[in-house]
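Kindly review these tokens for lecture notes.

. . .
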Amino acid sequence: MNTQQLTADGFRESVFDYTTSEEWGYKGTLPAIVDFYADWCAPCKAVAPILEELAQEYTGRLTIYKIDIEKEQELSSLFGIQSIPTFLFLPMHGEPMVQRGGLSKDVFVEIIETRLLMPVAESNA
């Protein structure tokens, strides 16, 4: 699998340690998408292969994490997850963006290219 499963401990280590800071500060080295899902969720299952494809296509430029809301209720509460799938888009700089509901691959690509990767390229110009 190209996506990475995250626990609360992994989230605090790799993404953001909400136990030590109240102000958002992304720890990652690449922009990321966090997929909040459940195994029983049909729209989540429909999006899973798209996320795997994207993780492979954007290897080295983007990280895609998956968080099972059934197992990681602390993270679900922290982000106020009320419906799934819910996606958290994490640019290298700036605030995260939340999108609820199943998305097509085209929509993911547009968000990745315009919100996650483009600002990094522009800042290096």
About this structure: The two ends are 34 Å apart (CA to CA). Residues 119 and 125 are 10 Å apart (CA to CA).
